[in-house]
Amino acid sequence: MEKTARLGLERVTRPRLYEQLVEQILAYIESAQLRPGDLLPAERDLAERLGVSRATLAQALVALEVLGVIDVQHGTGAVLARRPSVASVIKGLREHRSRLPEIVEARSTLEVKLAALAAARRTDEDLAAIDHALDVMSQEINDGDRGTHGDELFHQAITAAAHSGVLAQLMAFIAEMILETRMESLGQPGRPEQSLASHRTIADAIRAQDPEGAAEAMLAHIELVSDVELLR
After folding, report:
1. Domains in the chain, number
2. What are phi and psi of 47, to 5 degrees?
3. Does 53 share its domain with 106?
4. Shared-domain flag, residues 115 and 189
5. I want to staple 202 with a disulfide (CB 3.0 to 4.6 A). Which of 102, 183, 217, 222 is the partner?
6. Residue 8 falls inside a structural domain
7. Rounded to an integer, what distance in angstroms lies between the CA atom of residue 120 and that of residue 81?
């Protein structure tokens, strides 16, 4: 073992299930000669072909969506966006997984403070924007979608309600990375509903002008949405 370490070799690890699924989905795309714009089979059919549950398949599809390989459209299904090599996708998947903890760390630092400031500084217009975001997310979920747009609007409204230009700039800087975690989290079974309930708790604290309560609620929310299959 020590000799292996001295040679600079690493222990070979068994690919995780979602990595194996990603490879199989890409192999299917290749064998079926799908082109960008083509529709993948319905989740139920694809899960049966691969011999996995739909919930397990959904995690692999979310990973491919985060990497821009597919575009999951509500009411239509998974549409192929590009045809990358298997090696590049697995590399991107592992890089994405290694990035997630640092993105969560940044969110915990910035958004908890933003929630506290929002509770102290919010205006009636800010509350209206927060309520609008909640309504949008609720409607998306009721329509069978994941609520990603409403989720984005909610966090943007919290940032605006904090009235801190510098923190807003920092949030804008990591916005694209946060999008990765948003897609990953809301792809978890039952997560959209849990996330919406968590948003309402944050909004209630901000409405009550309770900075401590808003900070605690935001921290609990980030801990919730950071629990994703990719990091288990």
Report:
1. 2
2. -65, -40
3. no
4. yes
5. 217
6. no
7. 44
Taken as a whole, the chain contains a residue count of 232
Q: Provide φ and ψ at 143, rounded to 5°.
A: -85, 0
Question: How many helices and strands in the chain, by DSSP H and E?
Answer: 11, 2
- Residue 4 domain-assigned? no
The token pair that represents 220 in the structure block = 């609990």
Asked, for residue 90, whether it belongs to a domain, the answer is no
**Residue 185, pLDDT above cutoff 90:** no
Q: What backbone phi and psi angles, to 5 degrees, belong to 83?
A: -115, 90
Which CATH number is 134's domain given?
A: 1.20.120.530
Same domain, 52 and 128: no
Average per-residue pLDDT for the chain: 88
21 by Cβ neighbours in 10 Å (0-12 / 13-18 / 19+) ranks as buried
Query: Which residues, including other chains, have CB under 8 Å from residue 53's CB and lie 6 or more apart?
Result: 47
Distances (CA, A) of 130 to 30, 140, 157, 202, 205: 44, 16, 5, 10, 12
- Classify residue 199: in a domain, yes or no: yes
Domain that holds residue 41: 17-84
pTM: 0.78
Coil, strand or helix at 170: helix
Six-digit token string for 226:
């950071």
One domain for residues 113 and 179: yes
Q: pLDDT by residue (tens digit) across 115-144?
A: 999 999 999 999 999 999 999 999 999 998
